[in-house]
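Example record

Each entry pairs one chain with its bound ligand, pyridoxal-5'-phosphate.
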Amino acid sequence: MNQQHVYYFDNNATTRVAPEVVDVMIPFLREQWGNPSSTYGFGRQAGEQVDGARARVAALINAEPREIIFTSCGTESDNSAIHSALTTQPEKRHVLTTAVEHSANLKFCELLQKRGYTVTFLPVAPDGGLDSELLEKSIRPDTAIVSVMWANNETGVVFPIRDIAAICRRKGVLFHTDAVQTPGKLKIDVRELDVDFLSLSAHKLHAPKGIGLLYVKRRVKYQPYIVGGGQERGRRGGTENVASIVAFGRAAELAMASLHGENVRVRALRDRLEDSILGGIPGTSRNGGKEPRLPNTSNMAFDGVEAEGILMLLDQAGICASSGSACTTGSLDPSHVLTAMGCSAARARGSIRFSLGIYNTEAEVDYVLERLPGIIARLRASAPDA
Ligand code: PLP
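Structure tokens for the complex follow.
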């Protein structure tokens, strides 16, 4: 089969596994397949590699290795943090979060409501920003945890996590942040941020899907979400996904090494893409404030067109991007993030996200800029009220 070049502009959805990461995984699939919990040498060797990876991912976020719990994904990490806060403080039955969290958090909070907990979903401003004063005022005596994402996966808008953590500290409330979109894009230092829990997912930083971590600050009480064997020092049952954990460790090293250089280069590519679309295609605007924002993300609204059509024609040209809309059983619901920012349903339905990554090139951006104006013009010409 003659494979078409993939112009991949959807790095917030997932990332290509780095070749260096694939290389370190393979021995753990082929030869070193022992169970890390086994007491004989063959198992212990696998266990040592898990420990090595734990130290590497801990270094990425300036944590201690013992503060890391490996999980199966970012979703599990988010669920686990909130679950732990509620079970270690049974008298507290309120969760404070935002209306623009990833469904990994939102759906869990909705489930909690059905189970009789109270959840406050804080609104955001039209630029996607969060009002820290409102957050502070919304903390109640029975608030078990505040859970606020660091950077939004749809718009790239970055929340003032350090300030929010300070508020929570002052109020004596646990604080969790979903930092899934930040590695390789923002410097992560859990000591400086002073958070109690932080979630990451390996497939957003050039490691495989199906592996994540939850940072739990030392001395913060923790109740496991998944119980079984005594893995992860009794904090997460289930035999460790050794190959993926080792991959995560290598990816963490690469993310640290490339943070500055790629941040500058990817940001410049993103800005060129965004500025050229805004300047070159009439009826376009950005969703979300320009700063503070992830350096790789651009969410753009195109007047008078449906994202579905744009994405289909981009796909035909080999370009992968995504809509801010979640596709549910064939119908395109407007994005909950854009809706929370006050966008009309029509604007939300005409918005698409480009999320760049370390493998994108100038030539790829040129290609998108060559194809996109024609696609938008064609869709506008065929729109029912054109
Ligand atoms: N949180 C955010 C902000 C995300 O972007 C994602 C994935 O898109 C998740 C959580 C869920 O991570 P995972 O796919 O590893 O479950």
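The chain is about 45% helix and 15% strand.
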